[in-house]
Sequence to fold (426 residues):
Amino acid sequence: MRESIPPATVSRLPLYLRVLGEMPKAHAMISSEQLANVAGANSAQVRKDLSYLGSYGVRGVGYDTVQLRTQIEMALGLSADLVVAIIGAGNLGSALANYKGFNDWGFSVGALFDVDAAKVGSQIDGLAVQPMSRLEDLVASAGVMIGVIATPAGAAQEVADRLVSAGVTSILNFAPTVLRVPEEVQVRRVDLSTELQILSFHLHSGRRSASAG
Amino acid sequence: MRESIPPATVSRLPLYLRVLGEMPKAHAMISSEQLANVAGANSAQVRKDLSYLGSYGVRGVGYDTVQLRTQIEMALGLSADLVVAIIGAGNLGSALANYKGFNDWGFSVGALFDVDAAKVGSQIDGLAVQPMSRLEDLVASAGVMIGVIATPAGAAQEVADRLVSAGVTSILNFAPTVLRVPEEVQVRRVDLSTELQILSFHLHSGRRSASAG
DNA sequence: TAGATTGTTAATCGATTAACAATC
DNA sequence: TAGATTGTTAATCGATTAACAATC
Fold:
């Protein structure tokens, strides 16, 4: 036990964490069935997922919500206080910088960058906008581990290259483009078009099967 | 052939579309190997994915990029010109409203809403901000098929309920909360915390295996 | 023809889930 | 003890991929 949590499970752990966070504090125990209902999963899947963290459930009773949160946070490495840099201080970058949920999970925004000289020096949510020229030195001095790219598509690859050169190995890419990075670098893409297109498929195929049935 | 494209394939089709869109126009043919390299996939997987669309490749040559785009767009139902409503005109909602990529794939923003009376009536990217009271009638009159929730977490469930009542069956949720909706409603979540937590896991486990090896 | 690449099969791999003994 | 729920096994299901005949 305890080794190699499968990717599918890793991607569901944040969801469980969110559900636990939204529960009333009084609710001290939760069953796999309840958790599954809220998370939209199967109870056997929930139990299997949680079993990778160790066996902290109580038979006949359920899981202690406080302990479960702690176990999931440990598994995800959230105790480390990871420093994030946001590149791009437009609407999207500002929305990300303003997002309070960062701190809830032990992340902090170490630096915010923009190419626009007019924005540099201004404050967004108490954070000074830095010039792109300072990317490398601030990544180093702030100990940035994760780069969040919130630039237009055209600038994203160059920003990614600079982040990688500066030693960043985890990138969250909000720009609508496919980044090329060395294979040791983890990239996660968040893409509005992709999401809309997947919804479009379901609308499309749903409509088809509805008219068929 | 042609029936029931598996979910894993559906979720990769937008990526192929993006790669095709980023290619130089002159490049008339592309092989599954090339597409796989850029998309970060296996060439057999690419061929299998594309085979669900029908057999439009040419043996010994590859796929016609223009035809392939058309086939993928048809499979995803992107010819339909889907109307999107954005709820929340803060930084995130504004970023989404400003996003030009919508139109590239046949989506259009039919309406943009906000609770803040000070914002209502102002224009964002040529789009008037509407009061929440008009949600139902504008969804109906504009023919909104997809609701994009860009509100704070606390408002998201109520907005979702109103969208569902108004007949919307596809929701893209940017608010950091888990929505409860009837099962016929498709919800896709885009969650910053989730993405960061998954990156955190890889940093965490990568560091562990690096120190082990 | 020789070289290249598709489309598809079949093997493999991994994820989901039903079922139930263990046990609170 | 009776009822409930976990942890885990084994069956099932689905996704990935190596391999290769088909064929441009």
User: Anything to note?
Assistant: The domain at 7-78 of chain A is CATH 1.10.10.10 (Arc Repressor Mutant, subunit A). The radius of gyration of chain A is 20 Å. The longest strand of chain A covers residues 107-114.
